[in-house]
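Render FecR domain-containing protein in 3D.
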Amino acid sequence: MSEGRIDDLVAKFFQQTCTPAEKRELAAWIEQSADDAALQRVLERAWAHYEPVADLTPTASSRILDDILGRQEETGPVTARIRPMRRTWRYVAAAVTIVALAGGYIVWKSRPQTPPAPAVAQAVKKDVAPPGGNRATLTMADGSVIPLDSTMNNTVIAGSNVRIVKTDSGLVTYQQLAVQGAKPSYNTLAVPAGGQFRVILADGTKVWLNAMSSLRYPDMFPEGTRKVELTGEAYFEVSASAAQPFLVKVNDMELTVLGTSFNVMAYPDEAFVNTTLLSGKVVVKHHNVSLPLKQGYQAALNRRTGQVTITQADTNEAIAWKNGRFLFNGTPIKEIMLQLSRWYNIEVIYAGEVNEQFYAEIPRFANAAEALRILELTGKVHFRLEGRRVTVYP
């Protein structure tokens, strides 16, 4: 296998876009490789892009390799199937260091140490909510519902105006056909809690959907405006067309787009609807107010007051979910738990008032127990995870 192919497969693994076949291909190469140093170099290249603030240690390398090979945690001694370098693991973050700052807490990655076992570790030996995966349903114009997570790859789904193909485990594509006089019909892609999915629309626009999100869109785009409707969260890379503006309707707000990449977070249980522009141009319209959004800025609609404010944004934080991680920069615990509840499909209960803010970066492919363990290390919050229910204690 070429070095470029190996790098591509490892990068896909880190981004959670590996198909089952690709993961098997990568695992087979790891099993057959006779050079631990080469394995380490491959992982270091991917890690440098994925976790630039943390060193990749031999322990973390071993854990990543075991995850690729599909090994599970064991209660007794581990017998290595290949070399000692590859020990059992279920967690790809380095150890964390905690420092008090301005009444809050910063959590960042550092060289591994052996942290004290937090309370959550005792409660989750058997009850561990796994991370989300590529799950979605596609509702056709006739009302038929197709479960995409169980539909085989390269399956062609019937469409009157388009060719719809599920190309891999997390992507469905639309290819517009030349049908004279055809009128668009509407499809809805819905992602449940604990899911994510991607779609390439008929005009070439790419959309990443986060957990508990849905997108309603025409199966083809005739002349005129391109319009879709979103609930939840999505990242868009819009195919440019000056003659066909791209409109995203979110509740009573509308975004006008011209060849742009941006993120929209519009969950009904959030206080704000946030639109973050990474490149290009977006005009945010709410009732009679239209505001142009500059690159690197975020428009926030306050659901309670109806006011829209524009501020400079942390674009890395806005699209962290799309890049396979949680990134919290002074985020209140209740907002954090909303994100975790959607991705891990867990119920959150509060056994007291918790108002702490957190700074942390957590891989989304860590399981729920591991994510909670990082937050617990601050000493300002504690959790009990029982099945899919998390109780938060001050």
